[in-house]
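Q: What structure does this chain adopt?
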Amino acid sequence: MPKTSPNSQIVISVPANSSFAPAFFFLKKDQRRALSAYYGYARAVDDIADDPGLAAADRLERLAAWRASVEVLFSGGEPGGTLGRELAWAVKAFPLRREHFLLVLDGVSADLDKKNYATRAELEHYMYRVASAVGLACLAISGYDAPDAGLFAEKLGYAVQLTNILRDVAEDHAAGRVYLPAEDLARFGCPPAALGGSNYSPDFIELMKFEAARARALYAEALALADPSRKRSLAAALVMGGVYRELLEKLERGGFRVKEGRVRLTALEKFKALLKAWRDYVKI
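A:
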């Protein structure tokens, strides 16, 4: 098997500390299997794009191999390897679409050469590919087919990805990437250099507060789109969103101290997120 093909040794499981993990309790066995396979795919292509040990040409080659494998999947074939077989099963068992895979590939491929974003619209185009597309796939697996399902996935994807960006802002800066829009940095007089280092300048804090408020609004907009008649199939997505919303609140409570290391939720905080997600579920 060529090294650029899906790896037969990839273990298809979601780490217990992943933000995806709590959502699995609210899925049926076959849904968990399908989401595990899709998670394995998304993780694999993201790892390729972010691997500092690979030359750019090698990353492009491996991502191209995955793109070819996606075409095999949707032509009725089965890519090699354990992950390929599981994905082939998933696309036959659930209404997963080619775009759920290719959009993610397009998004992680953009990370190879695009290091900053000028406007919110430009950033949202990126976030739609790397996060909202994942949400669309999750809803396809969970069976949520409300008329506004696409918009729900879009808003929740933006909220989740923006939360990730805020958590990783210093780490990304060290890697040469600035995801927060240049127009927002300019609005608060925050130079890109202020995203890194060890100092927490007032302009940095105000920028982070602004972006956090935007993320909170996106979570609220997504929740407002939930269809009460179909909410049982939305439980896993609500839990996933709840975990990330709790992470956002932890960033806010900590004063956006994101430069000392990656902020993570404790087991107690994840349980708190589950309770909040249940409250949201009841209110829908």
